[in-house]
Automatic annotation (TrEMBL):
PANTHER family attached to this UniProt entry: PADR-FAMILY TRANSCRIPTIONAL REGULATOR, TRANSCRIPTIONAL REGULATOR RV3488
Organism encoding this protein: Subsaximicrobium wynnwilliamsii
InterPro entries noted in UniProt: Metal_resp_DNA-bind_regulator, Tscrpt_reg_PadR_N, WH-like_DNA-bd_sf, WH_DNA-bd_sf
Signal peptide annotation: none
Protein's recorded name: PadR family transcriptional regulator
Limits of the Transcription regulator PadR N-terminal domain: 15-88
Membrane-crossing segments per the record: none
Length: 113
């Protein structure tokens, strides 16, 4: 399933969830964490990640903290208060979507369970 089109619609939710759990992260760290958690099944490319991070920042959902690490600057992303609220909302949306998809894929399951 690596780099499947299915995950692309969930990329923002994945980023928000990781930042909620880890307080602040830099881009490469996010890609590696997703790879680790999914045991390599899901690999987020930099070409997908950074536009999503920049969009979230522009929407006021992320703050950026630039720190010097060695000889280079590293951008750390963290949730704003608005980002915290949006994370909760996005997670609820995704959970409802997954429940609906489960019913469609396996009609024996119901929305009530």
């Amino acid at each position: 399933m690596a780099n499947s089109k299915l995950y692309k619609g969930s990329l923002v939710t994945i980023i928000l969830r990781l930042l909620k759990e880890n307080e602040k992260m830099y881009g490469y760290e996010i890609t590696q964490k997703v790879k680790q958690i999914t045991q390599g099944e899901l690999q987020i490319t930099e070409g997908a990640l950074y536009p999503a991070l920049h969009k979230l920042e522009a929407q006021g959902l992320l703050d950026v903290d630039v720190q010097k690490v060695g000889n280079r600057l590293r951008k750390y992303y963290k949730l704003t208060p608005q980002g915290q609220k949006e994370t909760h909302s996005k997670l609820q949306e995704l959970q409802a979507y997954i429940k609906t998809m489960q019913v469609l894929v396996n009609p024996k399951w119901s929305l009530e369970s």
